[in-house]
Write a sequence for this structure.
């Protein structure tokens, strides 16, 4: 009799934990769907011209943590994602985070963006070498072309090092369908190929 109660109680606890995990994943999935809005067809065009303007002082001021600084457009995925300054959980829950220790989009050096693999970057694995990434901010529209895809350890800091020219580095956890804290990072490294003010 006592054994049956314990087994029954254990079954109820396990079902409650499973239900809570389903709700949490559903919430994260919904936030990712809402953060990504579809693109108009005319935005998903290929850019081939070279950069015309990049300057270190193209922004009127440095953004505050948590501030929306623009949007990341991924034509291959037909997605437009909000970018927030900072990579704390508050920013990453709302969209793509801009690593505050890196330059802003369009500036010379390495601009680093990050996002969760189970929300905004759910399909980032479909983006690879030769694909375009477009960043729109108050300073203009910056089109980058992916030149390299890397998979690195989670603690690898080489992705945030300075670069000699305007570069966009986009990072998310990897593998994409891994359960729990992922051991690797999926990295897109893209060069600036077009600037439009």
């Amino acid at each position: 009799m006592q054994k049956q109660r314990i087994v029954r109680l254990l079954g109820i606890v396990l079902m409650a934990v499973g239900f809570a995990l389903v709700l949490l994943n559903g919430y994260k999935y919904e936030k990712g769907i809402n953060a990504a809005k579809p693109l108009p067809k005319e935005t998903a065009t290929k850019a081939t011209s070279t950069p015309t303007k990049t300057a270190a002082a193209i922004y009127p001021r440095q953004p505050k943590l948590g501030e929306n600084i623009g949007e990341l457009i991924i034509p291959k995925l037909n997605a437009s994602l909000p970018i927030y300054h900072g990579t704390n959980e508050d920013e990453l829950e709302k969209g793509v985070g801009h690593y505050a220790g890196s330059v802003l989009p369009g500036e010379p050096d390495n601009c680093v963006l990050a996002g969760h693999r189970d929300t905004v970057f759910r399909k980032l694995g479909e983006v690879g070498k030769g694909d375009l990434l477009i960043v729109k901010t108050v300073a203009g529209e910056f089109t980058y072309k992916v030149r390299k895809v890397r998979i690195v350890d989670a603690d690898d800091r080489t992705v945030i090092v300075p670069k000699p020219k305007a570069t966009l580095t986009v990072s998310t956890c990897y593998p994409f369908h891994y359960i729990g804290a992922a051991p690797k990072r999926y990295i897109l490294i893209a060069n600036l190929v077009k600037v439009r003010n």
Q: What stands out?
A: Confidence is low (pLDDT under 50) at residues 29-56. The domain at 63-196 is CATH 2.40.260.10 (Sortase; Chain: A;). Strands lie at 37-38, 68-74, 79-85, 96-98, 110-114, 132-137, 140-153, 167-174, 184-196.
